[in-house]
Amino acid sequence: MYQLLLLLPLLAQLSLAWQPDHVLRIASGPVAADCTVRNSAVINGTSPGPTIRLKEGDHVWIRVYNDMEGSNTTLHWHGISQYLSPFADGTPQTSQWPIAPGGYFDYEFLLQPGSAGTYMYHTHVGVQIVTAYGALIVEEAKPPFAYDADLILLLGDFWHASDANITKGLLGTPFTWPNDPQALTVNGNAFGQCTGAACRAGCHTEVLNVLPETTYRVRMIGAMGLSFIYTSIDAHSPFTVIELDGGYIAAHNASYLEISSGQRVSFLLRTKSAAELRALNQTDFWANIETRWRSTRDYGAWILRYNLTQDDFPTLDPYAPIPALNKTVPLPDEAPYWITNDLSAGNGSTLGVYWVVDQYQYTENWPQVPYLVQAYENKLHPDYEGALANGGFDNSTNSIPIHINETVDLVFLNLASFVGTLEAHPWHIHGAHPFLMAQGLGEFSDDAYTAARQNRTGQPYRLDTGVGACISSAVLPLSHYSSFSVPQPTRRRLFTEQHHGPARHERRWMVYRLSAVDAGAFLLHCHIQPHMTMGMATVLLIGMENLPSLPKGFLGEFMAYNSTRTLAAGAQPAGYFELVEGL
Ligand SMILES: *[C@@H]1O[C@H](CO)[C@@H](O)[C@H](O)[C@H]1NC(C)=O
Ligand SMILES: *[C@@H]1O[C@H](CO)[C@@H](O)[C@H](O)[C@H]1NC(C)=O
Ligand SMILES: *[C@@H]1O[C@H](CO)[C@@H](O)[C@H](O)[C@H]1NC(C)=O
Ligand SMILES: *[C@@H]1O[C@H](CO)[C@@H](O)[C@H](O)[C@H]1NC(C)=O
Ligand SMILES: *[C@@H]1O[C@H](CO)[C@@H](O)[C@H](O)[C@H]1NC(C)=O
Ligand SMILES: *[C@@H]1O[C@H](CO)[C@@H](O)[C@H](O)[C@H]1NC(C)=O
Ligand SMILES: *[C@@H]1O[C@H](CO)[C@@H](O)[C@H](O)[C@H]1NC(C)=O
Ligand SMILES: *[C@@H]1O[C@H](CO)[C@@H](O)[C@H](O)[C@H]1NC(C)=O
Ligand SMILES: *[C@@H]1O[C@H](CO)[C@@H](O)[C@H](O)[C@H]1NC(C)=O
Ligand SMILES: *[C@@H]1O[C@H](CO)[C@@H](O)[C@H](O)[C@H]1NC(C)=O
Ligand SMILES: *[C@@H]1O[C@H](CO)[C@@H](O)[C@H](O)[C@H]1NC(C)=O
Ligand SMILES: CC(=O)N[C@H]1CO[C@H](CO)[C@@H](O)[C@@H]1O
Question: Where do the Plastocyanin-like domain residues begin and end (predicted)?
């Protein structure tokens, strides 16, 4: 009895200490972003899910439950390097078994010094990302730029068709392209009109409230499944861009903003004074959103609203149709580069060049046992030599193996497809961020590379999603995808029908320089979700012989589908803390 009394508080304390920092629950639910109801994947009941704010240096534990009935899921911490924690990257069959219906998975990772910035989390199964995403903000003690507060602009695409319907169309014969989204959302909101049972009232254009004479850091996050967005705010240009993809850059002014799926851009917004607003007789301002690099343009908006009460200021109605903004808040036509050639940060490194080719049509259902699980079981042995002789791609594992501590140049070639169209493909790399070395129009060659390097005004900076460059770069040769070059005849023909457009014959290229210091199995893929479903992805196997050890007690959960970790009563959660060693 005496012993039990003594033990109870101790056990209670231990179980208190062993708590996730955050819990997220993924479920199916109705989402009516533009008033049309879609049954969708939601996180903690909403789309977007809750914003998660973490701190540089944190050792984070996030438990994710799959409350959906018929679908697997995972959460990917988009842009986080997963240094020492490749098992927490959240890619099914690459870094982990998917989370089974009714199951959960514990994501533990470190936020290294220097990682402060804007990220997102999203599911990485099928096209669940259409609604299952949220903002992930890593804060630091002292940001290098002064601002009073931050604002989050999560941009998304909303389709009325269900995830299952979209996926079925993309993988089916005949092939069915989902077409452009029905709405462009801002923080999950869009004005829309509909009638009938699949309709819900209350949808509206997003309104962001600001105070006069305040400096905001606007964290714009590209959570779109497809769209490439150009955007601006009436009467507030220029925008001082300070961050791309979780990395600070030297402040640079831009007359408008660009963002594609997977990218993050922070800019400083200095709001007007009360006197300026009075002179303008205006406290509400339209922000215009338009898509680019597709054959049709889609339109969206949000409203910047000053908290300045004065009765006769005209107000904008977020519950009314958005007027045509292309005259009042004009945006330029498609053009490569945006401001990306003028930005500066960081230092490059010099080593060999790999040509990245990929003759393999990626699918999230292969390999049968996830790469990283095989590697931890010591059953994955990439053929480094064979891969080198094959342009970087290892046919035995369908991956690009890279030794730990190697620095490689990844050369992306964007060739017009066989139907003559050149599309925009924002390539996102999981794990550590590479340097964007150079990008160019036309053929790639050493001379073109040298000329493009000399053309840049600053040091290469790091990215995890090809910025602005999209059309001008960031694309593996389409002809190297089996889905396009060795396709099923039906799919090939239907692809032609879906992607007809103005014929272009230009080629574009981009070079990423990657120092392979973070071991793990990491995806490299086009962040346009339908393209990824169609196979536009490849796996980088970095340092399979040099993986960090798994946290203690994690083995059971990690090694099998739908197993869960159980901590023996009173046991020390050693693994959780072991990861920190060596930092
Ligand atoms: C998500 O919801 C769960 C309960 O359903 C709650 O415990 C948790 O705190 C929520 N997470 C966040 C980040 O709000
Ligand atoms: C869920 O994932 C498991 C393991 O990869 C797989 O066997 C199963 O078919 C998947 N279930 C669904 C509904 O996709
Ligand atoms: C996964 O495990 C949980 C907890 O043991 C169980 O309730 C659920 O039915 C399992 N799901 C599947 C698909 O096996
Ligand atoms: C998707 O749903 C629409 C109707 O909402 C239907 O016309 C179409 O055939 C469906 N596509 C697939 C691939 O199931
Ligand atoms: C502006 O006013 C609204 C409505 O009164 C309030 O909800 C919001 O918090 C205010 N915003 C700021 C930035 O003060
Ligand atoms: C950006 O523009 C503002 C206003 O025109 C100016 O004050 C600021 O110095 C510019 N910043 C840079 C980095 O050019
Ligand atoms: C401001 O605009 C409102 C609505 O358009 C108008 O009624 C009012 O007279 C204007 N005030 C000034 C000072 O121009
Ligand atoms: C301007 O935008 C509207 C939608 O807001 C669109 O219907 C129209 O075609 C656009 N005009 C031009 C010239 O792009
Ligand atoms: C790898 O596979 C591709 C496509 O099947 C083939 O063209 C190539 O010759 C193979 N390379 C090696 C080294 O086996
Ligand atoms: C990789 O480089 C780091 C730092 O230079 C070094 O500490 C580490 O031992 C190297 N790893 C291997 C496997 O060579
Ligand atoms: C250099 O930059 C300019 C402006 O961005 C661009 O028009 C030109 O094509 C670039 N030249 C090379 C060789 O990259
Ligand atoms: C080693 C090296 O190249 N260092 C350079 C890094 O970049 C800064 C400017 O961004 C240079 O001043 C350093 O010389």
Answer: 28-141, 151-274, 386-462, 507-542
Q: How many CB atoms are closer than 10 A to CB 268?
A: 18
Q: Ligand 1 in contact with 8 (CB < 6 A)?
A: no
Specify the residue with its C-alpha closest to ligand 3, atom 8.
102
φ and ψ at residue 208, rounded to 5 degrees: -110, 125
Query: Which tokens is 25 given?
Result: 């629950």
Q: What is the mean pLDDT of the segment spanning 317-344?
A: 83
Whether 568 is in the pocket of ligand 9, judged by its Cβ within 6 Å, is no
CB 256 within 8 A of CB 231: yes
What CATH class does 144-334 carry?
mainly beta
- The pLDDT score that the predictor gives to residue 427 is 82
CA 208 from chain centre, in angstroms, equals 23
Query: In the 8-state DSSP scheme, what is residue 100?
Result: P
% the chain with pLDDT above 70: 79
CATH number attached to the domain at 355-542: 2.60.40.420
- Is any ligand 2 atom within 6 A of the Cβ of residue 79? no
Please state the domain extents for the chain. Answer: 144-334, 355-542
User: Given the structure tokens 């003559």, which residue do they identify?
Assistant: 420
Torsion of CA 456, 457, 463, 467, to 10 degrees: -60
Query: How much distance in Å is there from the Cα of 253 to the middle of ligand 9?
Result: 47
Which of 250, 257, 271 has its CA nearest to residue 331? 257
pLDDT by residue (tens digit) across 410-421? Answer: 777 666 554 455
Residues 388 and 408: their CA atoms lie apart, in Å, by 12
CA Rg value for the chain: 24
Report the chain's terminal Cα–Cα distance, integer Å: 44
For a mutational test of ligand 7's pocket, the pick from 280, 283, 312, i.e. the residue with the most ligand atoms closer than 8 A to its C-beta, is 312
Instruction: Encode pLDDT of 191-216 as tens digits.
Output: 999 988 889 999 999 999 999 999 99
Mutation probe of ligand 11 site: the residue of 337, 449, 453, 509 with most atoms within 8 A of C-beta: 337
DSSP state of 323: P
Distance CA 178, CA 159 (A): 8
Q: Three-state secondary structure along 292-304?
A: ECCCCCCEEEEEE
- Looking from the CA of 225 toward its CB, the CA atoms found within 13 Å total 30
Question: For ligand 12, what atom is nearest to the CA of residue 344?
Answer: 10
Answer yes or no: is pLDDT of 149 > 90.
yes
Nearest ligand 6 atom to alpha carbon 250: 13
